[in-house]
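Complex 193.
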Amino acid sequence: MKTFTKEIIFAGRSNVGKSTLITALTGKKLPAGKRPGVTRKPLHITYQGFQVTDMPGFGFMSGVPEAGQEAIKDNIVHYIEDNAGNIALAVMVVNATSFAEIVDRWRERGEIPVEVELFEFLHEMNIDVIVAANKMDKVADIDKTLDGIAERLGMMPPWRQWLDVIVPVSAKKGDVRGLKELIRKKLEGKKKV
Ligand SMILES: Nc1nc2c(ncn2[C@@H]2O[C@H](COP(=O)(O)OP(=O)(O)O)[C@@H](O)[C@H]2O)c(=O)[nH]1
Ligand SMILES: [Mg+2]
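Predicted structure with magnesium ion bound:
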């Protein structure tokens, strides 16, 4: 029987620190910190028997027209649909310092924020999701910030009720231990199909 390498995808708005986070977790370099939107196609690396995929960042990027941003979103959705059977886990990376503000701004305009849409879409596809709240080194009130993120994704605060979903990290500082541990826990026994 043919076996497939299981996949872990990292998705999120541009500039939230996806590439930095993958490098911090795996020790492998990906293009990071360049112009937002530099990651247009899914990038793959292999890590501990898994394929790790850095998805293109969605949302506003200076210099990228709105049609291009929509196309990136469509690509992400299609990629996930096409590979759903093989995706063992999705890590949705958010910028903890701006997530609440961005979500509220979209909602005030009567729109569904892309990250909320993505979170729900992954659930519909039966893909296990971790929300990595990144840039925690810039956050003053940790509990309040994480409660705000949980609530906006439809998870009743306090955020500590959702320790199997939400994990604070600081990719830049290399503080990713909680995420590493949660990924390990979720992937136990999921390596091959
Ligand atoms: N303060 C802080 N900055 C970070 C953190 N992680 C990433 N960054 C910065 O955020 C910017 C975007 O990072 P990048 O990994 O390219 O984001 P991507 O577009 O989501 O792949 C870079 O300037 C990083 O140095 C973090 O944990 N804390
Ligand atoms: Mg990137």
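The beta strands are 7-11, 43-47, 50-54, 87-95, 129-134, 166-168.
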